């Protein structure tokens, strides 16, 4: 149990770094160009940066623990705590911007998303009736509502938990004296 406390205290600041990074990206996209919220490459960039933070958290935690072993559990906690904190900070930032500061911006992003959906589906040769149905779905479902942001947070935690399990497999270190 002592290791878990140390792991949490070492890993938690990385969650704050992730939250600051993601919040900064959200604020900059909001300020400079709302259409950035529909760009695939922004999601890829976020993914790569988050992975880098999680790897850094794993490396630092493993170093600080300085035991001959770094258990799978500790390695998973070292990845999951930062992502839970970081995504929470990012979700709160998004909720504040799109529900309190500028709710009209949420509508603009939904329109960009609907346009992107229409263009993509047209490019794939999807029938117009199906395209219209998909666009209507995008426009009727506010992705920035409090409920949808909370759902998104839960789904992201589940996704990143799987990534955390993979990182835990990579960074765990078995106790050499256990053999």
In short:
The mean pLDDT is 92. The protein has 179 residues and is mainly α. It has one domain.
Structure explained in plain terms:
With 179 residues, the protein is mainly α. The protein has one domain (2-102, 144-178). It is built from six helices and no strands. It has helices spanning 2-32, 40-65, 72-101, 103-123, 128-140, 146-171. The longest helix is centred in the N-terminal third of the chain and has 31 residues, at 2-32. It starts with a helix and ends in an 8-residue tail after the last helix.
Structural features:
single chain; 179 residues; mainly alpha; 82% helix; elongated; DUF4199 domain-containing protein; DUF4199; transmembrane
Q: What's the helix and strand layout?
A:
Blueprint: H1 2-32, H2 40-65, H3 72-101, H4 103-123, H5 128-140, H6 146-171
Helix pairs in contact: 1-2, 1-3, 2-3, 2-6, 3-4, 3-6, 4-5
For the termini, the CA-CA separation is 23 Å
Mean pLDDT: 92
Q: Estimate percent helicity.
A: over 70%
Largest beta-sheet characterization: none
Weakly predicted, low-confidence segments = none
How many DSSP H or I helices?
A: 6
Task: List the helices and strands in order.
Answer: HHHHHH
Outline: elongated
Q: Radius of gyration in whole Å, from Cα?
A: 20 Å
């Amino acid at each position: 149990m002592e290791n878990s406390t140390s792991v949490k205290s070492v890993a938690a600041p990385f969650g704050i770094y992730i939250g600051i990074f993601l919040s900064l990206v959200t604020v900059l996209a909001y300020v400079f160009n709302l259409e950035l919220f529909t760009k695939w490459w922004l999601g890829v960039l976020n993914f790569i940066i988050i992975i880098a933070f999680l790897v850094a958290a794993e490396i630092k935690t493993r170093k600080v623990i300085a035991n001959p072993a770094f258990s799978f559990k500790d390695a998973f906690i070292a990845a999951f705590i930062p992502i839970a904190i970081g995504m929470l900070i990012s979700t709160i930032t998004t909720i504040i911007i799109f529900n309190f500061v500028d709710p009209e911006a949420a509508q603009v992003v939904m329109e960009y998303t609907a346009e992107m959906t229409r263009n993509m589906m047209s490019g794939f040769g999807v029938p117009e009736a199906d395209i219209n149905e998909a666009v209507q779905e995008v426009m009727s479902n506010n992705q920035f509502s409090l409920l949808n942001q909370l759902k998104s947070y839960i789904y992201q935690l589940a996704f990143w938990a799987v990534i955390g399990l993979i990182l835990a497999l990579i960074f765990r270190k078995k106790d050499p004296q256990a053999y």
